Amino acid sequence: MESLGGNIIAIVIQPTEIEQAAQQLIGQYGWMFIAGLVVLIFQSSIKKLAAGFFVFWGNDYNTDDTVYVDGKPGRIIRVGITKTVFFIYDVYDGQVVGGSKLIVQNDYLGKLKIEKPLCKLDLTRYNGAKKKT
Where are the domains of the chain? Predict the structure, then answer.
C-alpha cells in the first residue's frame, strides 16, 4: 500500500500476484467451470438422450404395437434410444393399399397424437339400449 497524501491510500498489485491468484483459482475450480460449460453446450443433446432413455426403457411403446398416429393406422417397428420407427398404413375399403415409414425422434413423441387401441372388449351392454322394467 502506498499513501498518496491525505486520506487516500492506493493498493498496488503486481502482475505476478494477479497471475498467481488466477492460476490458483483455475487450478482449484477450473474443472467446475469446464463441466458447466460442457453442460451448457450440450444441453439439448442431454435432454434428447434423457427422453430417449425414458422411451427405450419404458413400457409405453413396444415393438410390434399397433397404434394410430395422427388418426392413421400403423405399427411400431423399432424403438431405439434416440428414435422410434413406425410403418403407417394407407387403408382403402378395409385393405392395406400402401403406406410409409415414419421415423420420429423420441423427444418429439409427446407432440404426436399416438393412440394404442385396446384389445377387443365386449361393449354390447353399453350400446345405449334402455332396460325394460
Answer: 9-41, 44-115
